[in-house]
Predict the structure.
Amino acid sequence: MDNLVDLSNATLGDLDIARPTYDRSALTPGIVHVGVGNFHRAHQAWYLHRLMQNGQAHDWAILGAGVRPYDAAMREKLLAQDCLTTLIELDPAQTSAEVVGSMIDYLPIEEGNGALIRAMADPAIRIVGLTVTESGYYIDPVSKRFDAAHADIVHDAANPDTPRTAFGAIVAALRLRRDAGQGPFTGLSCDNLQGNGDILRQAVVSLARMSDPALADWIEANASFPNSMVDCIAPATGPAEIAQAREFGVNDAAPVTHEAFRQWVIEDDFCAGRPDWDQVGATFSDDVHAYEKMKIRILNAGHQVLANVGEVLGIETISATMAHPAIRAMFHRVQAEEITQTVAPVPGMTPLAYLELIEQRFSNPRIVDTTRRVAFDGSARHTGFVLPILRDQLAAGRSVSGLALVEALWARMCAGTREDGSEIVANDPIWEALKEAAQAARTRPEAWLAQDRLYGDLAQAEAFRDAFVAWLSLIWDEGAVAAMNAYTQVDESNGRASKAS
C-alpha cells in the first residue's frame, strides 16, 4: 500500500481507521498484565480501551509483563510501536480494524523478575492480570492440587526475592506491600480454567506458605482472586495477519486478528477497586461458574474434539475441520448427546443454543485458527476440559462413546504421524511421554490409559475403557474417518463400532 503508516503515538493522526481519541500521554497505570499475547490484546485490553474512549478509566492503563525469555521478542515489537496494537475483526460479512491504546509500557524481561516485582509493589497497581495458558498454574492434572514439587516452585520457595515464576513475583510484590503497610492488589486470571480465580489463589497462597506462612495468611485474608470467564477467538499472528494490517494502511509488527464475538463474565470481588467494564459489555455475576462451565465444556473441549483429528488427517484450520463432513457430524453428535448433557442453561442461553453459536463461530473461514495451535498442550486441555465431562457422564450412567472416541483420536495424534505419513512435531510439554504411550497403544490400547497423571481411576471405568480400546483399534486398522463414520451412523449394531457405542 502506498500510504503505509508506521504505527506509533506520533502517527495515530495519519491513520484512516478507528484509533484512540484519548490523550495517551495522560494515562497512568493501574494494571499489570502477565502474558501479553494475542488473546489479551484482543480481549481485556480492548474492553479497557473502550472505557478509555468513553473518557473513563484513564488511571487504569496496562503495563505489559512476561516471565519467560521468549516474551522479550514481543516486548521489543510492542515498545517499538508505543505498545499500540491493531485489532482486525474478521466478521464473515466484512473486515474492520481499529488501534487499541490501553497498554502504555512493557516491563523488562529479566532473571529474578525484579522490574515486575517493583511494578506490582507500587500501590498504584490495583489489579494483576494473567493469561499464562492452562498449564501455567503448576497444577497436578489428576489431583488438581498445587504442584509444590515442581522445580520452578521449589526454586521460588527457596529464593523468594528472585523468583522464576509469575506466582513467585506476585508473592514477592505482596510481601513488599504488606511490609510497607499497603493493601494487596486483586489477582485476575483470564485463562480458560474453571474456577480460574480459585486456582490462582491456590497457587499464590500455597507458594507463599512454603517460605512465609504469615504472608500466606495475610494474602488469604486481604487479597481477592475473582473467577472469570473469557471468550474470543484470536489466532496466532504470522505474515498473513501482518499483511492484513498493511491493507488498512498500518505497518504493525504484531497485529491481532479476531472474530466478531467477545464475552467476559467476572465475579465482582476486587479488593482495590476496578474499572467499570460492565459499561462496555462485560458482565459481573455471582454465578461465573455456570457461564464458564458452558464455555469450557462446549467451546474449549469442543476445540479438542476437532483439533486432534484435524492433525491426524492433515487439516490445517479449525474452520476446515468443520467443513469436513465426517468431523462435523462427529462433533455435533458428541456435543449434543454427551457434552451438553453436563451443562446447565445460563440467563438467555441454553446449552443447545450455545452449541449452535459455537458451530457457527468455528465454521468462520476468515478466522485462520490452526489445528496445531488448538491442539497444543493437550495434556492440560484434555485433563482440564474433556475428562471432567467424561467423569460426569460416567457418574450419571450416560453414554461416553463419543468422548472415548475423542480420547482415542488424541492418542492417535500423539503417536506423532499423520495418516499421510508426515510427522506431527512435538506439541505438548510432555510430548515424549505422550508419544511413547501412544506408540505402545497401537498394539495395546490400554497403554494409553495407563498414564496415571492423565486418567487416574478412569482407566478402570469399564464403559470408557472398553469403548476407548475399540475405537483406537478401529482407528489404527481402518482410519479416523472410518471410526467417526461408525460413531455417527444410525445403526451401530455390528462390528467393532457396536463395541464402542
Remarks:
- The two ends are 56 Å apart (CA to CA).
- The domain at 289-500 is CATH 1.10.1040.10 (N-(1-d-carboxylethyl)-l-norvaline Dehydrogenase; domain 2).
